[in-house]
Amino acid sequence: MDRAESHQEIRAAVRDLCARFPGEYWRKLDEARAYPEEFVRALTDAGWLSALIPEEYGGAGLGITEASIVLEEVNHSGANSGACHAQMYIMGTLLRHGSDAQKRKYLPDIAAGRLRLQSFAVTEPTTGSDTTRLKTMAIRKGDRYVVNGQKVWTSRVQHSDLMLLLARTTPFEQVQKKSEGLSVFLVDMRSSAGKGVTVRPIRNMPNHETNEVFLDNLEVPAENLIGEEGKGFRYILDGMNAERILIAAECVGDGHWFIERASRYASERVVFERPIGQNQGIQFPIARAHVSVEAADLMRYKAAALFEAGKPCGAEANMAKMLAADASWEAANVCLQTHGGFGFAAEYDIERKFRETRLYQVAPISTNLILAYIAEHVLGLPRSY
Ligand SMILES: Cc1cc2nc3c(=O)[nH]c(=O)nc-3n(C[C@H](O)[C@H](O)[C@H](O)COP(=O)(O)OP(=O)(O)OC[C@H]3O[C@@H](n4cnc5c(N)ncnc54)[C@H](O)[C@@H]3O)c2cc1C
Questions:
Q1: Pocket of ligand 1, candidates 81, 129, 199, 240: which has the most ligand atoms within 8 Å of its Cβ, to mutate?
Q2: Which residues have CB under 8 Å from 156's CB, separation 6+?
Q3: Helix/strand/coil (H, E, C) string of 117-151?
Q4: Is the separation of the CB atoms in 176 and 244 below 8 Å?
Q5: Which entry of 101, 132, 143, 278 is 20 to 30 Å from 294 by CA?
Q6: pLDDT tens-digit map of 355-372
Q7: pLDDT confidence of 238, banded at 50, 70, 90?
Q8: Residue among 116, 92, 151, 112 at smallest CA distance from 37
Q9: pLDDT tens digits along 316-352
Q10: Is the pTM value of this prediction over 0.70?
């Protein structure tokens, strides 16, 4: 089977799985502000969330292109990858920088669905996008680190056994470069609950399981440090290209969903004795949104190909994420407008998807920060922040 055929097989299989979780399923969860446990379990059991884990650890050993196709199809089906996508890319930090012992201890269980590693605590309330300024401190005491601080927007932590934590091990004032002195830890949430970790859910616009996390003398065994102390920021940056590519694919999936819904409705809805889609004022914005999604998709595949070839892809991964997030948002607006009043009715799922896709403009990285990256690193403009 060639690669294109295998992509078709992945798409068909993920589509079949998602068909078991129709709009009604997501609507009920949205109303109850509940987590899609059944859906995430089904994706896990089918092996899709371990797509990027190498075969030697029990995963599928697929490339980033294939992994991104999985998430694209999830979003294209009307579902939301936000409930589980991080399992795919967080694991990369462990895979690339973890010790052999750590990999053998965790990866096979993650691949088999016995363990979930889908929470990533970076953002803090007082420092936001200025990541290297984060204040959470981990101080080594013998065979453990004692962690104090606060995280915000820590997603899926209530449904994760393990949480990847970025903390300072050397105070900001004592490092030569601001990116030094940060370290990454694997926190076992099962043994930490009530022992230094308090989780407070944040009610938010999409139904996204996200939280404030308070760390109060949390003890983390030194063996849970990933890689070298003080090099954590680099490890996190390493994983970001994969994250950007996967998120871009989700946006492409959303974009297709919105455009298909808009096209269908515009063909069926008759007002003034003709389908509304016969008016150029309705059909051109839909066509334009389609063009935007297709263009973003090309950048997503370009970034994925560079990533798989082990070549630098920071610019392409960031551009893909930005273009795709913009395209899905354009498609969302067009779809809502095409549906007129009905777009606002929950039973059409459009207002839900609209809220979900809006998030990609801000998380996991906001558009301005991507533009700042392109300006500085691609165009050589002065650093603006
Ligand atoms: C639902 C949700 C889930 C999330 N999940 C996670 C998670 O799992 N783990 C995690 O660590 N984080 C998570 N985040 C946090 C997310 O990554 C941040 O919200 C995002 O990076 C922006 O940081 P901030 O909210 O602190 O905004 P700020 O940094 O306060 O920025 C506010 C606005 O100002 C803009 N801005 C800031 N500085 C500049 C500048 N120099 N130039 C131009 N514009 C600028 C930003 O682009 C943004 O639009 C999540 C956020 C949300 C909303």
A1: 129
A2: 83, 84, 86, 118, 119, 209, 210
A3: EEEEECCCCCCCCCHHHCCCEEEEECCEEEEEEEE
A4: no
A5: 278
A6: 999 999 999 999 999 999
A7: confident
A8: 116
A9: 999 999 999 999 999 999 999 999 999 999 999 999 9
A10: yes
Strand 210-221 versus strand 182-188 pairing type? unpaired
- Segment 99-138, tens digit of pLDDT: 999 999 999 999 999 999 999 999 999 999 999 999 999 9
Token pair for 309: 């070839």
Q: Which of 153, 329, 384 is the best mutation target for the ligand 1 pocket, counting ligand atoms within 8 Å of the beta carbon and taking the most?
A: 153
What are the pLDDT digits (tens) for 165-223?
999 999 999 999 999 999 999 999 999 988 999 999 999 999 999 999 999 999 999 99
Task: Give the residue from 258, 358, 359, 378 showing the smallest Cα distance to 318.
Answer: 378
User: Do 155 and 211 form a contact (C-beta atoms < 8 A)?
Assistant: yes
362, 371, 383, 385, best to mutate for ligand 1 pocket (most atoms within 8 Å of CB)? 362
Sole residue written with tokens 């809006």: 358
Residue nearest to atom 18 of ligand 1 (CA): 363
Q: What is the pLDDT of residues 51-66, one digit of tens each?
A: 999 999 999 999 999 9
Ligand 1 in contact with 131 (CB < 6 A)? no
Q: Is 123 in the pocket of ligand 1 (CB under 6 A)?
A: yes
